[in-house]
Amino acid sequence: MENFLENKRQITVAIALIKDGEGRILLQKRLDSLIPDANEKWEFPGGRIDYGESPEETVVRECQEEIGCQIKINKLSPKVQSSVWGRADNKEQHVIILCYEAEIINGTPTPMDKKVSEVRWFFEKEIVGLDLLRGIREFINYSNEKYEDA
After folding, report:
1. Regarding beta strands 92-106 and 8-18, do their DSSP bridges make them parallel or antiparallel, or are they unpaired?
2. Burial of 16 from C-beta contacts in 10 A (0-12 / 13-18 / 19+)
3. Alpha-carbon distance 25 to 23, whole Å?
4. Residue ranges of domains in the chain
5. In angstroms, what CA-CA distances link 85 with 2, 7, 38, 60, 134?
6. Is 59 exposed, middle or buried (0-12, 13-18, 19+ CB in 10 A)?
7. Taking the CB of residue 63, how many other CB atoms lie within 10 A of it?
8. pLDDT tens by residue, 103-116
9. pLDDT tens digits, residue range 55-89?
């Protein structure tokens, strides 16, 4: 309860950059009136890590809850993001984001959560004109770079 009474809080989220066999990237459109700068933006499926849950468990659970799919995690991106978001209730939220590159092993992506209005596959050239959530483009760009696993 005390987290809700504070003006500032910090959360960690895990998201999934999912590509298919054709190289398309899965994005979902977010509905979130609490965070106006995130509302109606395209993003990866994922969400807040619950107490006692690993980031890997989170991203698998969130993909099942948000898009109705089972995923296989391929690797953790070494790129980590940190961002502060203003909320409609005049509070601030500091979000630390871990991104996993993954693939769907079962299911057809469909909006399953009230905060997801649409789910679509996009070729990278189609993403250029989209209204993306802050940081999504950087994760896509980073996934295209060659890096050594740490």
Report:
1. parallel
2. buried
3. 7
4. 2-124
5. 19, 12, 9, 24, 10
6. buried
7. 30
8. 999 999 999 999 99
9. 999 999 999 999 999 999 999 999 999 999 999 99
Model confidence, pTM: 0.90
Which superfamily does 2-124 belong to?
Nucleoside Triphosphate Pyrophosphohydrolase (3.90.79.10)
| Dihedral angle of Cα 134, 123, 117, 16, to the nearest 10 degrees | -60
Burial 21-43 (b: 16+ CB within 10 A, else e): eeebbbbbbbbbeebeebeebbb
Task: Look up residue 100 and give its amino acid.
Answer: Y
- The amino acid sitting at 53 is E
> What is the spatial distance between Cα 138 and Cα 111, in angstroms, rounded to a whole number?
24
